[in-house]
Write a structure and sequence with these properties.
Elements lengths: L2 H23 L2 H17 L9 H19 L6 H4 L13 H10 L3 H12 L4 H8 L3 H19 L2 H4 L1
Helix pairs in contact: 1-2, 1-3, 2-3, 3-7, 5-8, 6-8, 7-8
């Protein structure tokens, strides 16, 4: 990868990586630090990463760096603590984005991450599997369970609108 390719990758993908991390950890400073760490890792490995694969590399590195920070800060929760019931939405909001954000925050970390990668960033199941080191079937299961939990939490859309 050339310096021009590196700069082009910063222009093309840094905002998307920042949004993805920020949606997961809700801390702007840590999200900026993670983005910076990811691009530092890319700079070190610039000879090994081709420009065609840089987007996948960046999101994968960002995901793993985020997980490491979460574990370091001991904020990770066990998926089994959530069980099958994440609760029901009972408030009366008119702002759908606020409701969706609140619902996403109630999901276990891995479900939230794969849903954000699929629905917000537009990655395929295969790309998400590569980024998260899960199998494609695991990714599909986490997305399915997460969407079910979101649907259960939000309820019927007509009630919100």
């Amino acid at each position: 990868m050339t310096v021009e390719d590196y700069n082009k990758s910063v222009n093309l993908y840094s905002d998307g990586i920042y949004r993805f991390i920020l949606k997961n950890i809700k801390n702007q400073d840590e999200a900026k630090d993670i983005v910076q760490d990811v691009y530092e890792k890319l700079w070190v490995k610039s000879g090994d990463v081709s420009f065609d694969k840089v987007k996948s590399y960046l999101f994968s590195a960002a995901y793993h760096t985020m997980i490491d920070k979460i574990r370091k800060n001991k904020r990770i929760t066990n998926i089994s603590e959530y069980g099958e019931d994440i609760g029901f939405y009972s408030g009366t909001y008119n702002d759908l984005n606020e409701v969706l954000t609140e619902a996403l925050d109630r999901l276990p970390g891995i479900q939230k991450s794969v849903i954000l990668l699929r629905d917000y960033e537009g990655y395929s199941y295969k790309e998400i599997a590569e980024i998260t080191n899960l199998s494609e079937s695991q990714v599909k299961v986490y997305i399915y369970r997460g969407r079910l939990a979101l649907k259960k939490y939000i309820g019927r859309l007509e009630v919100l609108v």
